[in-house]
Amino acid sequence: MCTDNEEKRNLSLGGHVGFDSLPDQLVSKSVTQGFCFNILCVGETGIGKSTLMNTLFNTMFENEEASHYQNGVYLRPRTYDLQESNVHLKLTIVDTVGFGDQINKEDSYKPIVDYIDTQFENYLQEELKIKRSLFNYHDTRIHICLYFIAPTGHSLKSLDLVTMKKLDSKVNIIPIIAKADTISKSELHKFKIKIMSELVSNGVQIYQFPTDDEAVSEINASMNAHLPFAVVGSVEEVKVGNKTVRARQYPWGVVQVENESHCDFVKLREMLIRVNMEDLREQTHARHYELYRRCKLEEMGFKDTDPDSQPFSLQETYEAKRKEFLGDLQRKEEEMRQMFVNKVKETEAELKEKRERSLHDKFEQLKRMHQEEKRKVEEKRRDLEEEMNAFNRKKVAAETLSLSQPLKKDKDKKK
Ligand code: GTP
Ligand code: MG
């Protein structure tokens, strides 16, 4: 492995060795393997996404018009195999169906963010497998997000700003003004300036064409100044002079898609496909995927350094995690045991209380029954006493009567 402080000596070769063919070997290998490129089109229903894709790749992709009555936004990926000369391109176009159609657009960006993250997650899972097959893995990570801005000539909508802000750390964004033939030249110029100033003031990072490679730095720098590209799409062929061109025909004239004084379509195609496709793929891997991977691994507890900033290998992380996990497990076990003991105590106390309560209730009931009995006996006693009193009274009366009767008989006898 080469490190910066390792001393290197320059030697000259005595003759042809052959490693100067390495770039050619790389090219030939890449060509055989083919390339893959994934485009995400974010824009309102009917804004011209499909037409622009057909115009960009000069073909007719599958097209299904979206309705304006979707309950939410969903993403529809479609993959195609394209070939130009001997180069194969596996192209995936992802459409945002129903974007901008809901009354409450608060969550419209979420399915898009989720989709992008899912593709990163799939790649990460493949990378983390013991038996990886990254060589022939179908990479579905999004390399470019074309954000279609409605040609209002006014300003960006809050949906545009929120969505781009949520996406800018996950994907390369190129904003484009769609259907640019519906806006006048002077309005378009002002609109472009307004959009860029709104993006800057809201801190939205859009993709900048790279200027570090000398071969393309000049064209890329000048194209950066043209953003957002104002594009027109059409697959209609129109005869202009003695040439047939793709254009949109109006009663007052013809808008030629590939005429740079009519719109920026050629600039977009040049930048996206002919000059910076590889940079877009690279940025996706080195910047956006790297950020996702770092956050995800940190979330899972992996670190490159220990608390003293010393390098920390994967093996050490694994051991530390294992210890932490076992410690956690023991603590949880102890907690569970304690919880169980407490529960048993609680249940015992509850049962005791219940038993006591039921005994108390029974005692109360018996007491009540006893009092009731006592009251009844008392009543009976009172009744009996009354009866006895009445009887005694009667007895006294009878006795009194019987005493007075002999006197009367004696009197009669004397007569
Ligand atoms: P959905 O997939 O249904 O969301 O629509 P879309 O965004 O794919 O739009 P599509 O390409 O189907 O175009 C919708 C309509 O706009 C069609 O009638 C197109 O002819 C028209 N259209 C597309 N591009 C342009 C353009 O650049 N300028 C103008 N004026 N019309 C366009
Ligand atoms: Mg479409």
Explain how this protein is built:
Helix content is 51%, strand content 14%. The chain contains nine helices and nine strands. The N and C termini lie far apart (167 Å). It has a domain at 30-236 and 263-300: 3-Layer(aba) Sandwich (Rossmann fold). A hairpin with a 2-residue loop joins β7 and β8 (243-250). Strands 2-3-1-4-5-6 form a six-stranded mixed beta sheet, sandwiched between helices. By secondary structure, it is an alpha/beta fold. Guanosine-5'-triphosphate binds next to α2. It comes from Sparus aurata (Gilthead sea bream). Residues 33-299 form the Septin-type G domain. Keywords: GTP-binding, Nucleotide-binding. Residues 352-384 have a biased composition (Basic and acidic residues). Pfam families: Septin.
Q: CATH superfamily assignment of the domain at 30-236 and 263-300?
A: P-loop containing nucleotide triphosphate hydrolases
Percent strand:
5-15%
Gap between N and C termini? 167 Å
The H-and-E topology, N to C, reads as HEHEEHEHEHHEEEEHHH
**In the CATH classification, which architecture of the domain at 30-236 and 263-300 applies?**
3-Layer(aba) Sandwich
Query: Major β-sheet, in short?
Result: 6 strands, mixed
Low-confidence stretches: none
Shape estimate: elongated
What percent of the residues sit in helical stretches (DSSP H or I)?
40-55%
Determine the CATH topology of the domain at 30-236 and 263-300: Rossmann fold
Q: Number of helix segments? A: 9
Give the bound compounds. Answer: guanosine-5'-triphosphate, magnesium ion
Structural class: alpha/beta
